[in-house]
Amino acid sequence: MNWITRCPECATVYQVLPDQLEVAKGWLRCGECQHAFDSTGLILSWSGTLPPRLDIGDLLKQEDRSTLDVRTQASEDLSSFEKALSSFQPEIDKAIVRMAASPPQSQDPADDLDVSTIDETTSRESVRRRWPSILALSALVLALLSQVIWVNRFALVAKFPVMAHHVQRICNAWACESAHARDLHAVVIDTSSFIQRDDAFELQWVVRNTSAQNVLMTSLEVTLEDVQGKPLVRRVFGADQLDAPETLSPGQVWQGLMRLTVARDLAVTGYRIVSFYP
To answer: Are residues 100 and 192 in the same domain?
Structure first.
């Protein structure tokens, strides 16, 4: 009893042995076209004598055409082989239908893993890889938010006075100058006057905070000049020396008064007053 199979790609017929099929798990490679195929369902048993590879042309040459009425051994083999092939085609068709209807089988054992398990593992690995990026982005956003709050701390203190104490504590810890804004353009001298009274001069001024937040009170530089505008006397007065408030609230006005006594030999005819932060 012989086992034969046919390559589904080029229809070349081969004789196979059960041991060969068991070792290869049914998989064969055609020696004619190099096509690999699963021979499951494509094996036929045939009682005739078949060489390892049957060449039908050679088999036909062995037949004696001059004696058609006499059945030679070659004709019997050919008839038996054709009969076997006639039953081969339906098996091939059935195998093709089964292969088309069923999903492809992988030879890799790892492919038999549950798809849901693979998806879950992939998802966990993806989340684990994203954690450093998420932490770095969160730290960057927190640093940016802290910077915005620190730059606008004076406006926040003006809008929420309850924050002034906490801002002052942070300022003391970081050795910054003050928890209040130093806005030189916001503190303006609205009016000033310089009047001589007996042996002294009386200097008056009005300072106003034009901003919408609390600002530190500025220092004042007072310069007395002669008729040519040359400085004769220059003095700087801090807020504590002027009995001025430490800070000016939004729109607050503060009026100051100072009496100045100068030497009689100084011909003071003018003055200049400047607001600044030391």
So the answer is: no
